[in-house]
Write a structure and sequence with these properties.
With about 190 residues, the chain is of the alpha/beta class. About 45% of the residues lie in helices and about 10% in strands. The protein has two domains: about 130 residues, Rossmann fold; about 45 residues, no CATH class. It has a five-stranded mixed β-sheet with strand order 2-1-3-4-5, with helices on both faces.
């Protein structure tokens, strides 16, 4: 594990629904980061250029290092794995390590990187599960409830074929007297004209 006297700590933040940028910054400052950089503003090449010998990249959750444009669990996991290997084997003969601030886990050796990869797999799974449930909320207009008086007025409009001879005329009557009531609802509730 890197000694705090020789490590170069760089904090990385990314806009995410799990933690605000302010909360991430506070946690990274408490973890002793000399610099805090937003991943939304930098690309990976710029991050790699910041790396010096024994640089520790501290991030709230290791899965925040994944490019947000990646879709699907396997693509995201592969993206993280490639970036972690790239940091561990830089051509300048220096290395960078990833520290998950939330769990306190440092991926320094190959075995620790594999363990971090398993943790990132869990984080990806949790992120996709939450995103899926949020995106699969009920769609469409909210359910409309009508009072018995409004239903009676709608029935009178629907059954009065002299004043409202067509469905378009009935819809105009509904729009005028019973807001939100449709001819489709009337046909379903009261039957054919």
């Amino acid at each position: 594990m890197a000694n705090s006297s020789t490590e170069d700590a760089v904090g990385l933040t990314r806009k995410h629904r799990w933690a605000t940028l302010v909360a991430q910054t506070e946690r990274l400052e408490a973890a002793g980061c000399r610099t805090i950089v937003s991943l939304d503003a930098l690309n990976r090449d710029q991050i790699i250029r910041m790396v010096r010998e024994r640089t520790v990249l501290k991030v709230m959750h290791a899965s925040f290092l994944i490019e947000p444009t990646k879709r699907g669990a396997m693509r995201r996991l592969k993206d993280y794995e490639q970036f972690a290997e790239q940091l561990a084997n830089l051509p300048r003969k220096c290395r960078a390590y990833i520290l998950d601030v939330d769990s306190g886990f440092l991926a320094e050796t190959p075995a620790q990187r594999r363990a971090m990869l398993a943790m990132v797999r869990e984080q990806i799974s949790r992120d996709l599960r939450g995103r899926t449930s949020r995106e699969n909320a009920k769609r469409g207009a909210p359910h409309k409830d009508f009072s018995p008086e409004q239903i009676d007025v709608a029935r009178q409009i629907w059954e009065n074929v002299k004043r409202y001879p067509s469905w378009e005329a009935a819809q105009a009557g509904f729009d005028e007297r019973v807001k939100g009531f449709t001819v489709w609802r009337a046909n379903r509730m009261f039957g054919k004209r």
